[in-house]
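Quick one:
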Amino acid sequence: TFIEILTDATDNDESWIGTGGGAGAHWTISDTAGDDKKMWFECRFKVQNIADSQKNIFIGLCEEARASADTITDAGVLGDFDFLGFNQPEADGDGLDFTYPKATQAIQVKIADLATLVAGTAVKAGFVYNPDRVAAERIAVFLNNQEQATYVTGTNIAAATFPDAEELALLAGLKNGAAAAHKFQIDWWRIVQLF
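Output:
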C-alpha cells in the first residue's frame, strides 16, 4: 500500500512529510574520525506525472524543519538548505537525479538522470555511506538494487558543498510547477545508521 502525498490544483502548492520536527534530526554523514558512522538509506516510490514543468519531487535526507513552505522554490529549485537525496526536477519530468548541497552552497547534481521515470511505475533508490570503503567510493548509489558507477568520494564529502556532519532528517514531498493537482506515492522508506 502506497502513502500518497497530494497537492491541489493551485500552482506552487506543495506537500511534505518528514521526521525530527523543528528541533533536531537523528542522522549525520561525517568524515571526522569517531563520527564517521556507516549509513544505509533506501526508498521505493512512484510518480503519476512525468511531464516537464508540472511538478518537482524530493525524497531523501535534509536538515530539520524543512517540511514547510518553499522547501522547493516557486522557480522549481530545491531551497537553500542541507540535503542529500533523490529529486525529480521540474524541468525534466521523467528524470531522477541524485543530488546534494550544504546550505548556502551550490546544489551538486552528482548523478543526473539516474533513472528515467515512467508514470505509475515504482522505482527503488538508495545510497550507502561506508567510511571504510576506498575514498573514491565513499557513498554508493543504487537504483533497483544495482550499484551505480558514479560515487560520492571522500574528496566530495570534505568539500564545502557537501553537508558534512550536518544533522539530517527524512523528508519527502512535492511542489506543483503548474496549476494541476498531483500526487507522489511512497511504498516505504528506511534508514539505518551504526552508532
